[in-house]
Structure formats: C-alpha cells, structure tokens
Amino acid sequence: MAPPSSWWGSEEQRGTPVVVKMDNPYSLVEIDGPGMPPSDKARGKNAKQFTWVLLLRAHRAVGCVAWLAGGFWGVLGAVNRRVRRSRDADDEPDAEASGRGRVMLRFLSAFLLLSLAMLAFETVAHLKGWQFPQHLPGNLQELEEQLQHLPEHLRHLPENLRHLPDHLRVPERQEIQGWLHRAYVAWLEFRVDYIAWAIQKLSSFCILLFMVQSVDRIVQCLACFWIKIRGIKPRIPAASSGIKPRGTARKSADVENNGDADDDADGYFPMVLIQMPMCNEKEVYETSISHVCELDWPRDRLLIQVLDDSDDEVCQMLIKAEVTKWSQRGVNVIYRHRLSRTGYKAGNLKSAMACDYVKDYEFVAIFDADFQPNPDFLKLTVPHFKEDPELGLVQARWSFVNKDENLLTRLQNINLCFHFEVEQQVSGVYLNFFGFNGTAGVWRIKALEDSGGWMERTTVEDMDIAVRAHLNGWKFIFLNDVKVLCELPESYQAYRKQQHRWHSGPMQLFRLCIPAIFRSKIPFWKKANLVMLFFLLRKLVLPFYSFTLFCVILPLTMFVPEAELPVWVICYIPVLMSLLNIMPAPKSFPFIIPYLLFENTMSVTKFNAMVSGLFQLGSSYEWIVTKKAGRTSSASDILALAEADAHAPPPAKLVRGVSEGGLQEWGRLREQEAAEWANKEDAAAALAAAAAAAPATPKKSSKAKKPNRIFKKELALACLLLTAATRSLLSKQGLHFYFLLFQGVTFLAVGLDLIGEQVS
Predict the structure, then answer these.
(1) Beta-carbon count within 10 A of 75 CB
(2) 499 touches 606 (CB < 8 A)
(3) Three-state secondary structure call for residue 307
C-alpha cells in the first residue's frame, strides 16, 4: 500500500521518462514522465521549432498586411475613378451656385490646408520627443521655467566650472534644440494664450444651446407621450354625423349620379376648391391627378384646378390630355397654364385664387404633384370646420411610398416622422399653431384672404401664410391619423436642394415678420413661442450648433487639446437625442448610428442655407423643384398586393344574358375609352410633329456612363475630419478618434454621392 500523500506536499513520482522521436526533422518532442526535472523539459524545445513558428506567424502577418493594403488601394482606386468621371454638383445650371457657396468652400479648403500643416508640425514634434502635458500650467512664466530649466546634473558642477572665461559660455537649451523647437514653444504659448480661450468660450456657448435644444426636444416627447396615453386628438363635431365614417363612404360613382340625393341632405358638403400646382413633373402628374379626381365628394360641389407651370411642351401636352380624360368622365377639372413662372409656387396659387369663380367656394385643398390622397380625404378633414368658425387650417400627415427604397429615404423617414408625430401634433394640440406643410391641407378661403393671401416674398410661402394667419387669430389643427401618400427624394442632390430651400426660407421670413409679430394683438406667450421656439431655437439654433460644434470646434480641439470637449457632449447626449427622434419610427432603430452621423453631415447644407436666408444672399431666393421618381407603391406594398392577388377568388365570368341597362352602361364605357385613346393619339401626333420640326441632334451612345456628381464642401470636410482623427492618435483620445473617423467616412460617402444609391 502506497503511503498517503499530503495535499500540500508534492506527490512522489516514479518511472522513467519516455522520449519519442517524430518523423519531422525540425522537432524533437519529449513526453513528460514521472521524475523528470524541469531543466530536462526545457531542453526538449528545439530552436528550429521556434524558428518555424515565428516564420508561420510572420507569414500570416504579412498576408494580413497585404490584404489590408490591397483593400485600401482598391478603395482609393474606386474613389479616384469616381472622381475622374464626376462633375461638381455646384457647377450645374440648377444648383445653388452663388458667392456664398464659394466662400464656404474656400473657408473649408483653407481650414483643411491649415490642419494638414499643423498635423505635419505636431508629428515632427512628437517624433523628436517634445511631449508636453496635455493640460499646461496657466502661469506662462512657470511654463518657460519648465522649458528652459537646465538638466539636474548641471546643478552640481564645481565652483571653478561655473565661472567660465569670457570667450566661453554654457549653451542654452533652446540653442541646442534649434529653431524648430523655438517655433513649437512659441506655438504652445500662443495656443494657450489666445486660441484655447476663444475655442473654450465658443464651445461653452454651443453646449448651452445644445442643452436648451435638448430640453425642448425632451419636453415635446413627453407631451407627445401624454397625448398618446390620454387619446387626445381633434374629433369631428357630433352635429356633422351625417358624414359617414371611414370604411362606409359611398363610392365616387354614387356621388356622381346622386350628387344632391336625399341621404346627403343632413350631411355637410360645402363648396370645395382643389388646387394642384406642378412644374415639369412628368413622372407623377398622372397618378396625382387620378387620385384627386377620385375623391369622394359631390361633383357639383367640387372643382379641381390643375395649375401647370411647366416650360416643357411635352409635359404640358401630357398633363392637358390627362385633364381632358377626366373632364370627359364628368369630373369638374380645369387646366391652367402660366406663360411666366413669376413667384414660383406662391405666384401660381395667387394667380389661381384671382379667378372670378373662386368666390363661390368656401374651402380650398392643396396637393403637390406627387401626393395621392385617399377617396375619403375631404370627408375626414372638411367637417372639422363646421362647428368652429375660427378654424383656418386642417393639416393631414404625410405617408411615404418609398421610405424603404434606400438608406437616404430611411433616414429622411426618421426625421419627418418625428416632425409630424411630435412637433406638429404637440403644437396643434396645445398651441393651435404650426407651420403649414404646403400640401395635404385644407384652408378656409376667408382665412387666406384675411391674412393677405399668397405672397411671393420668400421661398416658404406655406410657412409665410401660416404665420400671418396665426397673427390674425386663426386656429390650426393637425390630424395625425389622416395620411396622404407622397414621395421622398431618392438622390442626395435632390434632398440637398430641398433642405436648402426649407432652411433658407424660414430665416428670410423671420427677418420680414419680426415687426408684424410685435405689432400683433395675440397674447405675449404666443409671441414668445413664435420668436424663441418656432424661429430661433428650431430654425436657427439647431443648424448653427450642429455645424459649429461637430464640424468646426471638435476638429480644432484635436490641435488645441487645452480646449477639449467633454465626452458626454460628443457621445451620450447626441445618442439620447437620436433615440428620441427615432421613437416615432421604431422600425428604424437599427439605423440610429447612420442617422446620427448623417444629421451631422447635413448640418453643412443647413448652416449654409440658414446664413444665406438670414443675410438675404442670392441663393436664398432660388426655387428648384424636387426631382421625383414617380413611384406609386413601395416594394413591401407590391409584395402584399401580389400575395393578396394570389389568394383572391377568380373574377366572375361575363355572361350573355345581361339586362338592357347593363348593355347601355357597357356601351357608355366603351365610348369613354375610345375618346381617351383619341386624346392620347392626338397628343402623340403633336409630339411627333414637334420632334420632326426640331433640328436633328446626334444620339448619344446608350453605353456611355452618366457622370457621377461630387460635392466639394462635403469632401473638404471629410478630409478635415480624417486629418483631425489622425491628430487625435498623438493625444491618445480614443472616443474622439472613433467619432471623427466615422464622421469623416460619412462625409466622404456623401461627398462622393454614395448615400442615395439603391440598396438591395
């Protein structure tokens, strides 16, 4: 029996070690056996084995580096090819080319060159070992003492060596380091004295604005949450119960045949005028006109004006043919065309309201060319006016047919869902005021006339008329559950132009409306809300601090580390605000990081537009129609429709035993179809004649690639942020580096026009 071994002692080992020689000549492996000393184990490791392992690891590292270098080189080649095939978007005829845009580009270019020079200077200083504390002492005299102090070993020189002959002296440390070191020390002193102080004050001011805007955003979200919990929303008065609710509305054919039937005698069907302004929008005119002409309202109490400002003769003929088609079906629709596009959309609406027959109508509904209202739109909006004579506007919500088309449309959907769900709904419930969206709304004509009608003084005529109506005491309501389909711009260039108009116009209007606001008779708190919140905080402060804080101050703090921004300003608060913005669109939660980066990218365009509108520069008066793709349904809607058709019962077969009335109806429909085809043939013949009369032009090859667009301001900022990210590596600022890196890559993708491309 073997003696027991203690748990704290070592067990006795017996036996002999076994040595196994493998076939591999480069290794000799010893299998440990009992009793083998540690020194013998170490001798089992062959030097050739270590060499082989090191070679394998070196080969793997070289392969990884080669793969990264190849990928990086491929990306650079793709960027180079895209830039060589591209053209500057600001140089196009319809771009907002102005002195303001060129000044901004020159400013960013100079800022970029300065940052590159400073990066080179700081890199040389870092390589020479001139590392100084990140937070330098406030006393410059103490700083100079630290820089010029002699080394420790020079303090203990003998007395006879301290007093040298006149022709000899101990060299100064600055003389040993050279002129570059003196320049670096001078830069440090100048940085601490002047630059850091100014950046710190500006960043503190921007952080204050940032916090105020965040508090406003949180209060709005809490108010929206309260509205959802309590179920607060505008309701149709009980006296208007003659209007049938959604789902029980009569079909358009019944209204057409029985416009003044007895079952509608108790209903509320005032005279309604519908205006459809459009300009060179061949992609969407047919869909929008057909949806408006199918509205469920008595035909004798409805008039549709198609207000065409197109300067393209082909587009004019197509729109006119579509209007003629619906007119032959019994719809009261007329076509109006202006020879001069004076005043843009405001001038078009003003000209239409000057017609003599408008005085017979009580309300006017406005739809842009890409809007597709449901047949019950008027029955869900107009009855709200019956019991409230002070109500001037009923605004419906937008719904987007292409919100899942690409990354750009998804990010736009997040912004606009927050705008409707939170901003407009809260303002409508608690203030009875918000900015008119320009479309999908119904106005009381008396409110328009009382407020001075449409004016051509700004590019935001919808906000202009809303502010003037609010100053005259008219109330607004927002219907969040009444949605109208429309289309989002799918390209970055179209979205950029739209945002320029939407952010320059409010600043124009703010300058013009300030005297009228203070002279108005509305309560003081409404004046304060209009000036402080509606205009300053949400239209001016937001683009100002976004651009200044994240695109100017943050890169500067990398070169001036004494004015470093707190981490919570860069990370926590923006993420919290992005979460609040995404709440109305919870399906967009996976896009929170792209949304945060893209909003900072768009701050350049919004800041440019805000400055041009505030100081009345030339580009603030430009109106460019947003390009449409002509989509009528999204991909998910198409799949749902296909699935419904697959499970739908087969259609009923035609039988010969029909009644005489059915034959008459069939004959009438055939006559309408023949007349429609005749109109289309006439339009096609006119187009063919116009094409034959036009001078012959050589056709371009279908294989020629369309040049890409680039945006120089975004590309300049991308290079600036990536340069600042490189500088942050010297300061070992991890979070700042990642934020600047991802933000710079986002600017690069937007500058190369990659954000609006299709996503499979």
Answers:
(1) 11
(2) yes
(3) strand
Q: Are strands 302-308 and 333-337 parallel, antiparallel or unpaired?
A: parallel
Q: Where are the alpha helices (DSSP H) in 258-406?
A: 285-293, 313-328, 344-353, 377-381
pLDDT digits (tens, 9 = 90+) for 296-339: 999 999 999 999 998 889 999 999 999 999 999 999 999 999 98
Residue 446: pLDDT band (50, 70, 90) is: very high
DSSP 3-state of 304: strand
Coil, helix or strand for 36?
coil
In this structure, what DSSP letter does residue 152 have? G
Task: Express each pLDDT in 120-173 by its tens digit.
Answer: 777 777 676 665 444 444 444 554 454 455 444 444 545 444 454 554 444 455
pLDDT in the model for residue 260: 43
* Tokens representing residue 732 in the block: 């070992």
DSSP assignment of 83-103 equals: HHTEEEGGGSTTS--SHHHHH
Residue 733's pLDDT band (boundaries 50, 70, 90)?
confident
pTM value is 0.74
DSSP 471-529: HTT-EEEEEEEEEEEE----SHHHHHHHHHHHHHHHHHHHHHHHHHHHHS-S-HHHHHI
3-state helix, strand, coil in the chain (%, to 5): 60, 10, 30
Contacts of 686 (CB under 8 A, 6+ apart): 317
Out of 105-109, 159-163, 384-388, 624-628, which region has the weakest mean confidence (pLDDT)? Answer: 159-163
Q: What CA–CA distance (Å, rounded) separates 279 from 364?
A: 20
Query: What residues contact 20, with CB distance under 8 A and at least 6 apart?
Result: 29, 30, 31
**Bridge partners (DSSP) listed for residue 88:** 710
**99-127 vs 179-190: helix crossing angle, rounded to 10:** 130
**How far apart are the C-alpha atoms of 300 and 255, rounded to whole Å?**
9
Residue 272, SS3?
strand
Backbone dihedral angles phi then psi of residue 191, each to the nearest 5 degrees: -65, -45
Evaluate whether 554 touches 736 at the Cβ level (below 8 Å).
yes
Measured in whole angstroms, how far is the alpha carbon of residue 476 from the centre of its chain?
27
Between 556 and 625, the more confident residue is 556
Q: Which tokens go with 48? A: 């050739």
Neighbour count for residue 255 (Cβ, 10 Å): 22
Q: Is 70 exceeded by the pLDDT of residue 725?
A: yes
Please give the positions annotated as active site.
Answer: 309, 462
Q: Hey, CA dihedral for 185, 186, 189, 195, is it positive or negative?
A: negative
- Dist. CA 66–CA 357, nearest whole Å: 76
Mean pLDDT of 656-666: 45
Separation CA 544–CA 508 (nearest Å): 16
